[in-house]
Amino acid sequence: MTENGEIIDKALSLATRCGLGELGTLSEAGSPQIKCMMKTRQDGLKTFWFCSNTSSKRVARIMEDGRACLYFFDPANFEGLLLEGRASVTREEGLLHDFWQEGMERYYPAGPDDPDYCIVVFHSERGNYYHGMINRDFEIKQGEI
Amino acid sequence: MTENGEIIDKALSLATRCGLGELGTLSEAGSPQIKCMMKTRQDGLKTFWFCSNTSSKRVARIMEDGRACLYFFDPANFEGLLLEGRASVTREEGLLHDFWQEGMERYYPAGPDDPDYCIVVFHSERGNYYHGMINRDFEIKQGEI
Fold first, then answer.
1. A36 and B84 in contact by Cβ < 8 A?
2. Predicted ipTM?
3. CATH of the domain at A86
4. The whole model's pTM is what?
5. How many domains is chain A partitioned into structurally?
6. Interface size, chain A vs chain B, as Cβ–Cβ contacts under 8 Å
């Protein structure tokens, strides 16, 4: 295994064991904003999905400007992963139904077809992983990790 | 106490009990970036200080573009606070010495005057606090909170 492969394995392990990630987006003025999101699904380090609300300010901002980052951090050992890429919003029917779980009626009373229920998708383009003396940038190509 | 005062009290309580905060800054391309920072000192909700490294990419970015945010989150009850404002970097001698603690030689071998030892200062301009059904924006004026 290459050393780069080891870094990516560590980054993937961190992203996989974190149920929560911080999504960074841009305000209308182009300033950074952060919100903690509960991870619904992930495909390696490439793609992450989060259930959200169509009516929220954050979703409106993502629809206007998709520049985004996703950050995972383990406070127990100061291990961090910054993924930079793009976020988008989808109401693809198959995904809305796939991700539906009991109890979500509390947030979306009309069920999986509730117009306020939507999905934020984050696509990674590059990563920075750090832990102790390690601090490494790497590219993320679709179809790889 | 006004309802707004209660919100600010809750926000201040959250920021005060969080030892770690996520600092959001901008990449050269204007995209958001996030890094977890250990809080060194705070003045209410107005100003926060963090020890950092002069040579780091994050510090270089802050010196070029100070647009920033600071985010505190309590995963135990999904309570969050986003502070938006500006970050800057200082090597003010009094602060460097005030913030110096035993063990920091590990990161700054030359002691409190080590050229790689610097302080990131975050000044809040406005906040968004949320918890359960509460989600409230508020302004932060210097000399107030």
1. no
2. 0.94
3. 2.30.110.10
4. 0.95
5. 1
6. 79
